[in-house]
Amino acid sequence: MSTVTSADGTTIGFDAYGAGRPLVLVDGATAHRAVNPVNGEVGQLLSDGFRTYAYDRRGRGESTDTAPYTIAREIEDLGALIEDAGRPAILFGWSSGCLLALDAAAAGLPVAGLVLFEPPVVVDDVRPPLPADYVEQLDAFVAEGRRDKAAELFMTAAAGMPAEAVAGMKQSPYWAPLEEIAHTIAYDGRIMGSTMSGDPLPSDRWADVKVPVLVLYGDKTWPALSAGARAVADNLPSATLKAIPGENHSAEAATLAPVLREFADLT
After folding, report:
1. Contact 142, 186 (CB under 8 A)
2. Contact at 8 Å (CB) between 138 and 149?
3. Per-position b or e across 166-203, b if 16+ CB within 10 A of its CB
């Protein structure tokens, strides 16, 4: 593992693979290297032409955290990784990590292009919107030491899982690592902002994004996620929308790597 130090002193842990064009993989809510091996696998598959960064977002895995949280701090984390790379990077975002990647590009970081896999925006009535006080509920649960309730709220309100399925998850090995980073779920809630409200996306949030953008979704995914991908692509003049055969809200490294390579060749 390697580290960079972000502007506020937070240590960001990462693994880097290969040499060449920088590619930074940005996880969505709850994911980090210890629970998402796909980023590292992508890095290995692209090691002949890319320097791929698989990193732990602040507060997760082997990265530290510094209060108070702001989205700007996470953008600075990405800036520290890009500075380590030494040249403009392609950012690949998973789920809510898509919006962080977009915000980083809009903030003026040296970003050469964006690939976004299933941004989980909700712009219609295909699924219920997030509760208006979602972030406040998450913060309250964590402050009370009830990380299990924060994780449950994420799984039911954001991920759309039935309560009985979440009850089963709590008996699995997956649950303890989820509770461990439950305080960071509110970070992604802040990044999502109003984009899961069922209303149209804001027209100005990413108006400064001029680089090429590829928005991906699995053709086996839930209707709300394919609709969200289309909405994000429609919101960005430089975006192209592409369906990935056979995938849903996850994807195999062997599927993603050639898509990323092709995008980079055209960027």
Report:
1. yes
2. no
3. beebeeeeebeebbbbbbbbbbbbbbbbbbbbbeebee
In the chain, where are the structural domains located? Answer: 2-123+201-266, 134-191
- Tens digit of each residue's pLDDT (9 = 90 or more) over 154-175: 999 999 999 999 999 999 999 9
2-123+201-266 classified as CATH 3.40.50.1820: yes
Joined together, the tokens standing for residue 34 give 């210890």
pLDDT in tens, 86-115: 999 999 999 999 999 999 999 999 999 999
Q: Are 117 and 217 in contact (CB under 8 A)?
A: yes
Q: Residue written as tokens 């240590």?
A: 11
**DSSP states along 151-212:** HHHIIIIIS---HHHHHHHTTSTTHHHHHHTGGGHHHHHHHHTTTTSSSPPPSSTTTT--S-
pTM for this entry: 0.97
**CA-wise closest residue to 180 among 135, 153, 149, 148:** 148
How would you class 66 by CB atoms within 10 Å of its CB: exposed for 0-12, middle for 13-18, buried for 19 or more? Answer: middle
